Input
Amino acid sequence: MATRPDITYAIHHLSQFVSALTDMHMVAAHRVLRYIKGSPGKGLFYPAATAPSLKAFSDSDWASCPETRKSVTGFCIFLGNSLVSWRSKKQPTVSVSSSEAKYRALATTACELQWLSSLLQDLHVNLASPALVFCDNKSVIAISENFVFHERTKHIEIDCHVVRERVAQGLIKLLSVSSLNQIADGFTKPLAAPLFDVFVAKLGMLDLHFPAYGGY
Output
């Protein structure tokens, strides 16, 4: 997954059954292998010239685990137009609403952005503006920007303070995005083939074996 973010969700899901594999899981694993074999030259492309700015997409799939009803956190972070960090991971606790699940995902994304910002500072890369974080849940953005809402969310108070603090520091700026344009959606759930192709294209992945200039 270090160079193939397109298989992150599939590997995350299959890794939960390593100790108790069934024929169904083996079929799914073979399908992933066939996909990799069919595109051996596909990988991330990092252009030489890129803007020193961070942009992140944060999402979650509420209660998607049928056994535990835990949600899945998914995020992807771009430095300029280059994908530099991504994750698909089941949340440690059960969320009682989709907003809570997305807020936990947002807190995880904010912590990753904090680490990346510190790393870039050590490399003497100065960020001219706060990291833009796109979320497709307006209530989550309202909670981050309005203290009045915090009285209703004491059960996720730590996550509220984590995100709120990063916003107050000017490290991140929260923006709303439609679900159709939510890139991190592919890290939280399986997608149909057409949507998956769009997801892979938005990650900035290219295939070295694909003929250039339309085959001419």
